[in-house]
Amino acid sequence: MKLSRKITIFIVLTLLTLIVLIPVTRHYYNWIDAASKYGLTAVSIGKVIGRYTEENDGAFPKSEQDLIDKNFLKKAITDGNLIYYLKHGSSDLGEKAYNECFHFGEMKISYGISIEQIELRKGMLYNKESGELFLLIDGPYTKDLMSQFYMRASVNLYESMLTGKTKILQAEKVTEK
To answer: Whole-model pTM above 0.70?
Structure first.
C-alpha cells in the first residue's frame, strides 16, 4: 500500500511539473525563434542603413526605393516570392556583397526621418515633438525582450546619423575659414 501511494504521488508531481514546464518551454522557444528571425534582421538592416547614413552625410533613407537607387538593397522575385538582398560587403565583391534578408519586408523602417526630430535620452530614442519612445527600425514582435533588439539597432542608427551630421558641420567650418 505504501509503495502504490508513493508511485501515485510521484506520477501526480511529474504531471504537475510537465503542466508547468510545457508553457514555459514553448514561450522560451517562441522567443528564441522571434529573436533569430526579427531581432537579427533588425541588427542586419541597422548595419546597412548605418553605412547608408554615413555615406549620405547623416541623412536617413527617404524610402525603400532610395536604398535600391543607392545600391544598398536589391529585390528579386524567385519562384513567385519577393526576396530582399542587403549589401553587407564592399562594391568590389559585386553580387557577393549582397546577402539575403528573409524578413526585411516585415520590418517597419522610419523612412524620411531627420535627426532633428529625435533625441537620445538614457540610452533610448524619443520623438522630440511627442516625447514618446521612438524606433527607427521596428518589427512584428514587440513584447518581452524583443524591443531591445529594435532599440539597440535604432540607437546605433541614430549614432551613425550623428556621425554623418558632425562631418557636415566640420566641413562647413573648414570652408568658412
So the answer is: yes
Run of H or E residues at 165? helix 146-176
For residue 53, which amino acid is it? T
C-alpha cell at 99: 546577402
Cβ(140)–Cβ(75) below 8 Å: no
Location of C-alpha cell 528564441: 32
Q: Are 158 and 118 in contact (CB under 8 A)?
A: yes
Lookup: cell for 102: 528573409
Phi, psi (deg, nearest 5) at residue 84: -105, 140
Domain limits of the chain?
38-176
Tell me the per-residue pLDDT of 52-107, one tens digit each, with 9 for 90 and over: 988 888 889 999 999 999 999 999 988 888 999 999 887 778 888 888 888 888 89
How many Cα neighbours within 13 Å face the side chain of 4?
1
Cβ within 8 Å of residue 78, ≥6 positions away: none
165 close to 58: Cβ distance less than 8 angstroms: yes
Q: Which residues pair with 119 in a beta bridge?
A: 126
Beta 124-127 vs 118-121: how paired, if at all?
antiparallel
Of 140, 106, 89, 109, which is closest to residue 46 (Cα–Cα)? 109
The average pLDDT across 108-116 equals 92
